[in-house]
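subagent[fold] <- orchestrator: predict structure for attached chain, return tokens only, no commentary.
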Amino acid sequence: MPSVSGNAWVTAEEASDICGREVTADQIALAMPVIEIFTGVTTDVVLRRPRDLRMLRYATAYQAVWMPAQVDVLTRMDVDDVDQDGVEFSKGDVDAHTLAPLAKLSIKRLTWMKSRALIPLTPEQAAHLRGVYLPGTGVTGTEEWLDDHQSWEPL
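subagent[fold] -> orchestrator:
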């Protein structure tokens, strides 16, 4: 199982190779908490999928390169729209002031960050799959909607 050595998803050397720019250990240390906040996972976790570790490495590397280029990234206020001297600005993404765009794309590709639609089963579907009606469904087996599965008989 992939694991992380030390206390970072990526080393400064690996981040430099990924981004093609010089990345320092201090930049990695600054980027790590941001990635942990957005992913909800820490380096203490042993990941089952190598792809997840790779995406976390990418996200941390991109965040480490992006953060130093931002003005007051740790202290600025979050705003949606600015209108000053006839110049208007509105941010296109909720996290645009705190998360690097490529880091966000990497985070979206983590297996636990993907959307999982849960379509609840009807009592009929649950009974078909499980062979029984579960307590609390309020279904006795004599409901009209169950008639669809009964053979037709003249009145």
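orchestrator: received. Logging for downstream: Residues 118-150 form one domain. The CA atoms of residues 82 and 130 lie 56 Å apart.
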